Amino acid sequence: MRSDAESLLARLGRRDFRYREFADSFADMELWPIFEALLTDPRVVGRPLSKLEAREAEAVLAVRRAEPEQSAMRSPSATVTSMFDAYQDAPPPAAERGNLRDFLGHLSNDPNKRDY
Amino acid sequence: MPLILCHSPKGGVGTSFIAAQLAIHLAQRGHDVSALDFTYQDSLKLYFGLTPAQNLPELNDGSAEQIAVSGVALFSAYGLQHDAAFRDLLDRPDHSPFARKKIFIADVAAGDRETKDMLLPHAVLHICPMHPRPGSLAALPKVEPGTATIDLVKTGFVLNHLDDAHRLSRHTHIFLRELLGSKLLGTVRRDEAVNEASAMFEPLARFAPASVALNDLRKLVIAVEQAAGLVEAPEETAS
Description:
The complex is a heterodimer of chains A (116) and B (239). Chain A has one domain (24-113). With 116 residues, chain A is mainly alpha-helical. The radius of gyration of chain A is 18 Å and the shape is elongated. Chain A is 56% helix and 0% strand. Chain A is built from 7 helices and no strands. Chain B is an alpha/beta fold. Chain B has a single domain, classed as P-loop containing nucleotide triphosphate hydrolases (Rossmann fold, 3-Layer(aba) Sandwich), CATH 3.40.50.300. Chain B is 32% helix and 18% strand. Chain B has helices spanning 15-28, 84-91, 113-119, 134-138, 167-180, 192-199, 204-207, 212-227, and strands at 3-6, 33-37, 67-69, 72-76, 103-107, 125-130, 155-162, 184-189. Chain B has an 8-stranded mixed sheet with strand order 3-4-2-5-1-6-7-8, with helices on both faces. In chain B, helix 1 (15-28) packs across helix 8 (212-227). Chain B is globular. Classes of the chains: A mainly alpha (116), B alpha/beta (239). The A-B interface holds A 2-4, 6-7, 24-26, 28-30, 32, 34-35, 37-39, 41-47, 90, 92-96, 103, 106 and B 134, 137-138, 140-141, 145, 148-151, 167-168, 170-171, 173-175, 177-184, 209-212, 214-215. Chain A: Residues 88-116 are annotated as: Disordered. Chain B: Pfam families: CbiA.
């Protein structure tokens, strides 16, 4: 348990809480332009993207840029779904699974699950 | 024995703080630790509760009185980078001044790439602290020029000053977790108690035992122990 949470509960005299820390979900992340710049920088991610990968990356990034507008039109059920998705365990990091393509694929996965 | 090199291409990200806290927490976990301040600023000692006027003994001065705080032996090593004998030791193929049964934590200033490059071949682990800010992110390509950041084998990253109340800070954490994977060794949340402890010339653990940063540092040091090979990696449990 985090020490600040522990001391707060001790001060409140509450012992009937279940304590759990939640990692932020990948779906909670907005793709800031500086993230895009790093993802396409070979000094960060290694070999330059092939033409095909670059096209795929650009398509994924374009979708991500357009998503805040889409999220305003989400159905209530989608909002509930994304709320609970945010409390799931974080997926394995893309870098451990292989390459930039996985990362970009991860970015493009099921945009309805995102929670802005 | 191991040298752990703390250096970031971006200054002001808390490298000295992380170096000091790693040294203190490794010492608490039973390791024999020396902290070496290679910086001109000479501020590593503040995180041990020392004052600016207290001079650390030079690492190569055997006659100087030793200073140990929180179980860590403290040395100034700023003069060493231009010491011909020290450089000669580093250049010897089968010898290292760090080859002793002791852990050395080196704090190297951001702009001092020469010292960083000189020490890196002798380090078992390079810790690169970062801030969740654009300036720190933009410096990622400069961690080790010539090698892609995600391919660095000796480098572990620490996201310092994490603040979940700020959007960019949260998103940077997620982004780095995805980009760096297990190379992101840990995060340390922003806590004003860190500055207050230094201003009071007190170690953080004594000034603010309930500091959220301390809790994060306890987790971080376990990850550093494993990344540096100081302990055996835990066995994977069958699922």
